[in-house]
Amino acid sequence: MQTRSLQRDLNRWVILTATVFVLVGGTIAGGGAFYEARELQDNLLREVAVRVRAGQLSSEPVQSSEAEEETIVISRLGPENGTLGARLGDSLRTGLQTVSLDGERWRIFVVRQERSGAGFVVAQQTELRDEIALNSALNVFLPVLLLSGAMLLTIHFLIRHHLRPLSKLAARLDRQNAMQLESLPATGIPQELLPFTTSINALLVRLREAMREQSRFIADAAHELRTPVAALSLQVENLQAATSAADRKARQLALQEGLERLRLLVSRLLDLARLQAEPGTPPQPVSFHAVVRGVIAELHPLAESAHVDLGVTTYAEVKVLDQDGQLTQLVRNAIDNAIRYTPAGGRVDVSLAVEEGKAVFSVEDTGPGIEESLLEHVMEPFFRIEGSRQTGSGLGLAISRQIAERLDGTITLSNQPGGGLRFTYFQAVCHDLPITTEPSSDT
After folding, report:
1. If pLDDT is split at 50, 70 and 90, which confidence band does 219 have?
2. Residues 6+ apart with CB under 8 A from 398
3. Order of strands across the sheet that contains 347-355
4. Is the pLDDT of residue 442 over 70?
């Protein structure tokens, strides 16, 4: 696709607009000058006619300037042969009029002398009159045309000059080092470009932050992978040193568990990387109620094996947008974490409600909770609470936060007054599905 040039577009439209206005204005001014010149010539005929009527001029040519073609003819009406007055006859009305004679058009003024009563005609050929009037119009129009051409050239250079900062900004961006992005200068920039440069600088700030996060993520991932890989290497060596079948079987089981933890870690890393990089398919409406019910059915055996009472306090039939099944992963992470961090004999309560046009999914447990100072850090990748008995990748909540951002939702974590953690997720409701609330029930 061919890119458009802002400078060419501005020049094109300015030239086109100016040309139209110049032509229209020049035509109006030239036309006015044309008709004004003809009116001046009529006034000249009137003035000459007044002098003829007073007997101050005789029947002879009168020149209004040095040019011979501007001659005004004065002729007596009557039987004289060959004169203009004889050819016109004596039947013309007094005053200003236009007549045709032998294929020529004349502008004439007929007047009669006060003393003798003789009739005279003051005449000028219309062809000569029009030529004089046209010259007057051109004398008005041509300077306007020349000045407009000079004006358009000046505008072209001014546009080119004032758009030069854009080229300089583009060149500066092209010279940027991808690893060291510098903000564009805010000084010496036209006021109209300041919002553009401000937005570019804000984007550069976000890019720098994203690059720092990616670098930190890669470093943390490498660190997290190094520990289990080193442990697996030791377990392989231990397996080779097994002295009996039972010892070998025990060491194989430990190796399998280590491989499974590594597989889960790599899987979580890939999930988080995919969420950060891929745009995914367009969101589709799903039943939040069905998602929660399916995850609870899936995790109910885990809760039973951990001796945790997993129940539902409120179900609301609500429809929200989901993308590639990510809502299911968010719900699973929230309930799975609650089960794992709740001691035996504890309780995990799940609820789904609608408040102010938003679906509110919450998971409350009776576990130890999290220190208030750590609540803002637990959703960072690879963050683990020291002293926790649970092993994990530290990526579950980070993945949930990425999913929430994808779905335009919000996650909050808070400690309950009686102990335990409350996980709450808010997301806008799709209003094309009627919302009904079911009675509370336990799974």
Report:
1. low
2. 272, 379, 380, 381, 382, 383
3. 410-415, 421-428, 358-365, 347-355, 309-317, 436-438
4. no
Cα–Cα distance between 329 and 335 in angstroms, integer?
10
| Structure confidence by residue, pLDDT tens digits, 354-412 | 998 899 999 999 988 888 878 777 777 666 655 455 555 567 788 888 888 888 999 99
Nearest to 340 by CA among 397, 401, 288, 266: 397
Three-state secondary structure call for residue 304: helix
Angle between helix axes 288-305 and 326-340 (nearest 10 degrees) is 30
Q: Which residues pair with 76 in a beta bridge?
A: 120
Report field, pTM of the whole predicted structure over 0.90: no
Secondary structure of the chain: what % helix, strand, coil (to 5)? 55, 20, 30
CA distance 60 to 63: 10
Judge whether residue 82 has pLDDT over 70.
Answer: no
Q: Are 296 and 350 in contact (CB under 8 A)?
A: yes
| CATH fold of 284-438 | Heat Shock Protein 90 (3.30.565)
Higher pLDDT, 389 or 94: 94
**Cα separation of 172 and 169, whole Å?**
5
- CA dist 271 and 258 (Å) reads 20
Least confident of 53-67, 182-196, 294-308: 53-67
Task: Enumerate long-range contacts of 382-385, CB under 8 Å, 24 or more apart.
Answer: 382/220, 382/221, 382/223, 382/224
Distances in whole angstroms, Cα of residue 386 to Cα of each of 136, 225, 342, 398: 97, 19, 16, 17
Strand partners, 414: 422
**pLDDT at 95 (0 to 100):** 85
Identify the DSSP state of 192: G
Q: What is the pLDDT averaged over residues 116-123?
A: 78
- What amino acid occupies position 153? L
Q: Which value, to the nearest 10 degrees, does the dihedral of the CA atoms of residues 204, 208, 213, 217 take?
A: 120
CA–CA gap between residue 23 and residue 17 (Å, rounded) = 10
What φ, ψ does residue 89 adopt, rounded to 5°? 90, 175
- Kindly compute the dihedral angle of the four CA atoms of residues 251, 252, 257, 261, in this order, to the nearest 10 degrees: 100
Report d(CA 235, CA 231) in Å as an integer: 6
Q: Which residue has the tokens 């409701």?
A: 429
Q: Would you kindly state where each structural domain of the chain is located, as residue ranges?
A: 6-159, 192-277, 284-438
In the CATH hierarchy, which fold is given to the domain comprising 192-277? Answer: Helix Hairpins (1.10.287)
| Range in 86-95, 111-120, 216-225 the model is least confident about | 216-225
